[in-house]
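Exercise 7b. Backbone tokens:
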């Protein structure tokens, strides 16, 4: 690096290496962080075949947060 050049010139020349270094740091963080360890719970997701079963399970958990996801292939 020449001493007469601005820091902006250095950043422009080395931006690919800086991006790769940032991606490597992000990958390393996700691989070794404790955030990746999700505690197991007793509740499991299930497929619900009909509306009566959905209503029964929904009413069974009154007082707890509930979320219904409707997914469509279209």
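Sequence design result:
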């Amino acid at each position: 690096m020449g001493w007469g050049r601005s820091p902006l010139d250095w950043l422009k020349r080395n931006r690919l290496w800086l991006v790769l270094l940032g991606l490597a740091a992000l990958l390393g963080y996700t691989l070794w962080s404790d955030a990746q360890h999700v505690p197991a719970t007793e509740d499991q997701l299930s497929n619900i075949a009909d509306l009566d079963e959905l209503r029964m399970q929904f009413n069974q958990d009154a007082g707890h947060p509930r979320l219904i996801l409707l997914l469509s292939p279209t």
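Instructor comment: The chain has a mean pLDDT of 80. Residues 25 and 31 are 10 Å apart (CA to CA).
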